[in-house]
Amino acid sequence: MQIRRVRWHIVVFLAPAVLVYTTVMIFPLFNTLRLALYSRIEQERVFVGLDNFRRLFLDPVWADQFWNALGNNFWFFLIHMVVQNPIGIALAALLSHPRLRFAALYRSAIFIPTILSFVIVGFAWKLILSPIWGIAPSMLDAVGLRALFAPWLGKEEYALTTLALISVWQFVGIPMMLIYAALLSIPEEILEAGEVDGITGLAAFWKIKLPLILPSIGIISILTFVGNFNAFDLIYAAQGALAGPDFSTDILGTFMYRTFFGFQLQLGDPHMGSAIAGAMFAIILVGVCFYLFGIQTRMRRYQL
Amino acid sequence: MSRARANPVNAAAMHGALILYTLIALFPVFVILINSFKTRRAIFREPLALPDADSFSLIGYQTVLKQGDFFLYFQNSMIVTVGSLGLILLFGAMAAFALSEYRFRGNMLMGLYLALGIMIPIRIGTVAILDMMVATGLVNTLWALILVYTAQGLPLAVFILSEFMRQVSDDLKNAARVDGLSEYTIFFRLVLPLVRPALATVAVFNMIPIWNDLWFPLILAPSEATKTLTLGSQVFIGQFVTDWNAVLSALSMAILPVLVLYVIFSRQLIRGLTSGAVK
Q1: In chain A, which ranges are E strands?
Q2: CATH annotation of A51-296
Q3: Taking the domains of chain A in order of start, what are their residue ranges?
Q4: What is the pLDDT of residues B173-185, one digit of tens each?
């Protein structure tokens, strides 16, 4: 057998990226999953198998919080899907209109919230919605809807929805940009052919453009899913680690942070924290696989 | 479309909708900025009025500059962001070059392995990352953040850059090889300058999430000396909740650098987002 010369430059080119990626990302990921199988009993690390997961899903001490956070997380995601994506698509459809003036200006302005940090966004909205400052009530007053005002972030029944809508406000720029790009890549000829057949305006959007941008909508949905299921910052900035009022805005990210780091009198528990991370990993993996194998492969792709 | 062109009512409706949404998008930022320049009384009496000679005040900014070390936080954020971007671009481009240029056993597999991280958030591994940073003594250093953000940014960078590098003409590289240039020279002198637009796209994509991240600074580097601007303003605002002048000024100071970055790079960012780099 002939001995092949090792092409060292390939190794040199690959090594730094693979090294950093493996040690800082992949290894800790699996190590976290491994840590979830241990527990600390009287200062000793003991292997407990899947016991942490059993406690997380079934033991009332943990399970109530876990299912609450998971349910809230799904609600958070649902609001994004039904509010953020349609608004993003509508804005993109308007912006991609060929003879619209100032399109670049609108585009840049609408994207500004997306570049701000969660800390800014969380606090800014907290101040604006605050009954003490009174911007929101006095603006509602101006249009005669004063009666509708409530301290939305302070009420259990509204807080989570309000935060989800704030997050939608912040991130609507992303679906807008991606859909905008997809709409621009539709060739003129197809639209003109539709025009000849009498399909114009809204009908052209529903019958020609929307089917063509479905793959982009799929990508946006999975990005939203992954983003929402490891969200943390906005809730933490606006409501603190306790995700008040009374845990009504608790999602998996804040739950994991509290468990792992501890808060007030409860000590941090890295092993239960790892178990929550494991659950998050499983949820995200299921979502991504569902997208890759269930949706993406079945979606009809039109050759443009 | 021809109908829309002929119909001014339609155009007006479109502008109306877009202006309405633009106002919704900018209103909170505007309110924060104008009120940061007002006296406490004016903030509460007329929150929507612009500051005038009577209500103008810099008291909030004075408190912020006296109490919080915002210049240090800003410097930390700069070091972390620039450092991580540098490493993401260098390491990412090198790996992308290896994957797109050479045929070797395991090429496909290596590409898939590096692409895993595009969809799996690095936050899942936080518990073990903190353990590792504590064990190596990197906790509460900026290096911890730089390494984490580099690992986080690499998968997408490799993916985007190798797409672009496949388009660099083979003839050019082979001509250079005939001239006796080494593979390293070809990479640094020939290929890197040619994919500069792609490098800019990757940089802009990574810049904002790194600058704005709260999770890792909070967990890996919460010490006073290593606070980033995002964490610093979060802690500061938490301490001064009742001092509205200070809170509004701190928010404005946190908004400003990102806004400046955005004005400088918005064209690049929007071109990157719309060029289909993430498809």
Answers
A1: 38-41, 44-47, 262-263, 266-267
A2: 1.10.3720.10
A3: 8-47, 51-296
A4: 999 999 999 999 9
